[in-house]
Amino acid sequence: MSNSEEKDNEIKPGNEDNESSTVELKYYYSREKRLSHASPEVRAMNENSKPTKKGLLFSLLGSKSNVLLFGCVIIICFFIFVFSRMHSRNPDFTLGGNVLVLAMLYEDTVPILSIVKRAPEMGEVYLGPVDIVVRVAGSSEEEDTGFWHRVNFSPMNEQFFLISIPYTGDDFYVSFTAGNEQKSIRLR
Description:
The protein is α+β, with helices and mostly antiparallel strands and about 190 residues long. Helices cover about 25% and strands about 30% of the residues. The protein has helices spanning about 5-10, 30-35, 40-45, 55-60, 65-85; strands spanning about 90-95, 100-105, 110-120, 130-135, 145-155, 160-165, 170-180, 180-185.
């Protein structure tokens, strides 16, 4: 073979007529083979169907462990709510539309009744004198007539009262009378 014949047999770029230019490549990766061994979830993901949107409820209750965890969170929140309501250190209640927050403070051994009155932003509230009677828990009305005190609710949004109690102890009944409304509460 001469030099000119070798040049004619060379593969030239762009020459599609040359049979030796079409070389088949061997692929070692087969998608079909990989998907045949895959789980049904993986096959479903690789299909051309639209993915289903899973909402918040499915993510919370999608498996047994998620249901158990969600249930535990709900139960713990319920117990926190119940115990915080049952063991409130400063009981609050409404009297004449005003919210009263009570607490017993102690200066040395002298108990002091702390009353915070908060008026709501809207609505009618009682304004005027409020009679307060403090009794020691465990005593009857015949033995102890109680300690009487009077405060006046004014139109201010918040009022603060401190009343020194002439009794010793840490368990008291406090009664409030505002107009025709009367409420009693036990403070410890």
